[in-house]
Fold Integral membrane protein.
Amino acid sequence: MPAKPPAKAPATPPTTAARRLMTVAAATLIAAAAAPATLAYAFPSATVSPTAVAPGGRVALNVAGCGTQVARVTSTAFGEVRLTPGNQTAASLIGSATVYNNATSGAHRVIFECGGPGGERVTLSLQVTTGAARGGTGGSIGSMSPGQIAVGSALTAGALGAGVWVMRRRAAAS
């Protein structure tokens, strides 16, 4: 008669620590499987900077979370602009627009569409202010009075004169 193989030992039930570890592993697996689905449907966010601009001024446009390589922005303030990534790994799409010189004062809707017409939309507001866009000095002295300009010029001239005087004294002392 052939010999019988030894009987297998009965399986021992998992310990409490092993059960907890299996539960954590299963929960992690479920969370990992669900994460891409929730991230894929994240709502895009957009910005217009500055939010208030004079006719003829420029605004920077930015949208993140589209999941596409192109977006379209439309507004009655500047028409249509296509946004593209700043580089190949960029998560946001960027662009700029010039507000029409004859744009009316007040709030204008700015509509961002991911992937173009029919894509997910984000709507913001752009305030067009009265007056022309500042140029030349960039508005750095446009709001200064002639008296303020004169005082600033006098202080600058005094500082230059004091610097020349100190340099001449040092040269004479050597």
